[in-house]
Amino acid sequence: MGLDILGDRQSGQDVRTQNVVACLAVSNIVKTSLGPVGLDKMLVDDIGDVTITNDGATILKMLEVEHPAAKVLVELAELQDREVGDGTTSVVIVAAELLKRANDLVRNKIHPTSIISGYRLAMREACKYVDDKLAVKVEKLGKDSLVNCAKTSMSSKLIADDSDFFANLVVDAVQAVKMTNARGEVKFPIKGINILKAHGKSAKDSYLLNGYALNTGRSAQGMPTRVAPAKIACLDFNLQRTKMQMGVQVLVTDPRELEKIRQREADVTKERIEKLLKAGANVILTTKGIDDMALKYFVEAKAIAVRRVRKEDLRHVAKATGATAVSTFADMEGEETFDPSFLGSADEVVEERIADDDVIMIKGTKNSSAVSLILRGANDYMLDEMERSLHDALCIVKRTLESNVVVAGGGAVEAALSVYLEYLATTLGSREQLAIAEFAEALLIIPKVLSVNAAKDATELVAKLRAYHHTAQTVADKHHLSSMGLDLSKGTIRNNLEAGVIEPAMSKVKIIQFATEAAITILRIDDMIKLVKEESGNEE
């Protein structure tokens, strides 16, 4: 006698296997894009837009995964993208591998709860080990280390060939937006770096502009191309002839009155503009429109007005120049006023031509310095992919600067942890032993996938790598071997700290934490009830 639920219920092992299979399917998609020799994916969405990318989060976002368990992995990649900015592919691969191993353990009659507590323990130990033993403070390494972090992050992307060039661009950009907040912490707001894409020339012709670039031109030809010093007003409403609100009816008995109403409508806007100019504004940015009649006042006052500025651009400009974004002129008394304190200031605002577009540059902003990266490239796909890669690299450099701790890349950390955890597992007498051993095995998936993607012999390389790390952890004076990792272009093992393949330690720690959490979440499921959608209509 089944339950009276409209739907099918699956429980126990079936569900677990299904979930694991779904997650493995997702991870297999991104598997080949991991590492410096990873390949790119071409995704075509339902309206035929093509995206070519190597970024794990982007790939998964575009896949529109249906399966509930696999969705967890997609969210996982997005979380990693938000928190760290890079390492999205690794997270998904590690999580799926942990699941696969856990599923085998469950088949061998080990309760999921034991596995979960084992995984938790392994995760804590792994993170502790990274922080204590593997991490290297950045102060010892200087600017080169930042460039190397950026290069490591870009190595798997389309711009790997020019990574020297781009890495320097990225490091300069991040250091340009350095600011100290009220509590005295040094922050690097990545949002202050504006990335503009312009067709033409080659990737090598990308450059860094000091100042914030808006991808729109002046709204009228008669306006000056340069204003210095600039007082900037950021508005969020229409500077058009004010029309009556919807549903307002005016009964006019005398046709001459009609003309007066029209006149008044025009004057409201004129008064608004006069208030702006009186306050001293000579650059006006608005997210909405400005009509021709209103433009003429700005031209006469020799001010630059820009219409249809993107909302987020306006926010950034307001933040950088110390302006307040104003959404209405109304004040407490019901009058309309514009206080000069709402204005932001900058040294100059210029219109420049980049490629075929006019761009408004805001230079020498008052508060934080804003910089713009102008990317050049052959076509849209290339530019989009460059932007994604640079975003990853920017985040990585920011994390490195904020945490000041790096680890060796190229599978070094994973191999070290694997050896360490395996040893740890043998010292435990409890049930968790097996789970920790499997956790250790699972971490090896990263060096394995790296070497498979490089068309190298994975088994041999990983074995060598583990031998090195075993020596590093057991022989007292061989500790320097703990940063041995794969060299994928030659197919050998090398010391990656010296070779300059490094990543922020925070990125590795987060990868381990997030992957474990996701694996645990999916592992805990042992019952799935799918409700049947109720048929609408009159069945009775």
**N/C terminus separation:** 25 Å
User: Could you estimate the helical fraction of the residues in percent?
Assistant: 40-55%
Q: Which secondary-structure class do the elements indicate?
A: alpha+beta
CATH superfamily of the domain at 211-367: GroEL
Low-confidence spans: none
Tally of extended strands?
22
Q: What is the typical, i.e. mean, pLDDT? A: 83
Provide the CATH architecture of the domain at 211-367: 3-Layer(bba) Sandwich
Q: What features would you highlight for this structure?
A:
single chain; 540 residues; alpha+beta; GroEL; 8-stranded mixed beta sheet; 3-stranded antiparallel beta sheet; 48% helix; 18% strand; globular
What does this molecule look like?
- With about 550 residues, the chain is α+β, with helices and mostly antiparallel strands.
- It has a domain at about 210-365: GroEL (3-Layer(bba) Sandwich).
- It has 17 helices and 22 strands.
- Strands 9, 10, 11, 12, 13, 14, 15 and 16 form an 8-stranded mixed sheet that branches. Strands 4-18-21 form a 3-stranded antiparallel sheet.
- A hairpin with a 5-residue loop joins strand 5 and strand 6.
- Helix 4 packs antiparallel against helix 13 and helix 14 (about 445-455) crosses helix 15 (about 460-475).
- The longest helix has 24 residues, at about 255-280.
- The model has no long low-confidence stretch (mean pLDDT about 85).
- Its main location: cytoplasm.
- Belongs to the TCP-1 chaperonin family.
